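User: Working on a comparison across species. This one is Tripartite tricarboxylate transporter substrate binding protein from Xanthobacter tagetidis. Can you predict its structure so I can line it up against the others?
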Amino acid sequence: MTMLKTLVRAAAAAPLAALAFFAVPPASAQDWPTKPVHLIVPFSPGGVTDIAARVVGQKLSEMWGQQVVVENRPGAGGTIGVDAAVRSAPDGTTLLMATNGEITINPALYKNLTHDPQKDLVPIAMVTNTPLLWAANANAPYGSLVEFIAAAKAKPGDIAYSSPGAGTMNHLTAEWFAMITGTKLLHVPYKGGAPAAAAIAGGEVPVSVLAVSSALPHVKSGKVKVLGMTTQERTKLAPDWPSAREAGIADFDASIWVGLFAPKGTPAGIVAKVAKDLKAAIADPAVVARLNTAGAEAAGLDGEAFVARIRADTARYAQIIKAAGIEIN
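Assistant: Here's the predicted structure for Tripartite tricarboxylate transporter substrate binding protein from Xanthobacter tagetidis:
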């Protein structure tokens, strides 16, 4: 554990000149936008990224007097959509809504990317944050994170957990959890969050790392119980669920965030205007309510703070991928 923390800190401290946020020339955005803005989502409709794009995009359309057109470009773990955004003209007419997976995980996971998301994109702001949690089948013999950890230590490698797929944020969160708790778990990848949740509801596997939105229907049905959050704080979406910190797990805070990005070279004036208007949009109570219904919390982290979060996440997940030997063929 000490070695992992040292590696992460060392990597996080390295210069990240790649983040183009600091290299964009100033420009006036007084008349922008003068035509529709295309918002690329690197996943199919219906997921947390798509919902964030449509909810926020609708509000920005009202504010700008121009249509925000959501374009779904799914495939290859989000790399196809990111590639399309990177290759777009840097004039503010194309933006990207992406998760920490595409921005901070994929560079360490995929060896043949045709782009570098941290060199080729300008980070504007974090839009939403979706908490993750450990959930278990209702008949599992443990009812809390403390009991789950004890069971996993008693039988190393015996307890299986489902995830939406290899290399996903849920997968890396489980591996990170295993590293810091000194446990060994068996990974069983599924094709998406819904099948992974259905697997524990049906008893195919005893536990899983799930997003709140994936867990809720099964919790309400009584087939799944929540062991605890993977975050240091309880979530406002379900305040009765205990945090990782309450289970005595420090230095562990994992969630799926969705951020807004622009192609490298987009004028700083436009980036600043989008950031300002986005902050106003996600402060709107109606927008917040719609995001909460989808299992996401409005974020609003921007500027240096967002860049710092990207830097820290990139270092952390690169080391987890290496330490866990995760590979995508």
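For your comparison, note: The first helix runs from residue 2 to 13.

User: Helpful, thanks.
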